[in-house]
Write a structure and sequence with these properties.
It contains three helices and two strands; from the N terminus they run αααββ. The chain is mainly alpha-helical. It has a single domain, classed as Arc Repressor Mutant, subunit A. A two-stranded antiparallel sheet has the order 1-2. Helix 1 crosses helix 2, helix 1 packs across helix 3 and helix 2 crosses helix 3.
Amino acid sequence: MYVQPRAYLSTRRNTRLGLLSRTKILGGLDKEQKSIREVSIEISISYSRVLHHLHLLEAERLVERLGGKRPFKWRVTGFGQQVLT
């Protein structure tokens, strides 16, 4: 099971399912900015679960919302742990 290092949260309990979901979400957002619906469809996770995890990641400043008009686009920030190569 591969878990992206940025998927770990410092202020919350990290469950296996949560880590896997956040890894998929961050992987989906790495290439380009996307809406929640686009991410949800691409990685086959429910809209509400993606929204929940995006809010957790936003609180950790690992992702950010763009624009003032809905649907919001989300992108990964450079903040936090980086993938080790």
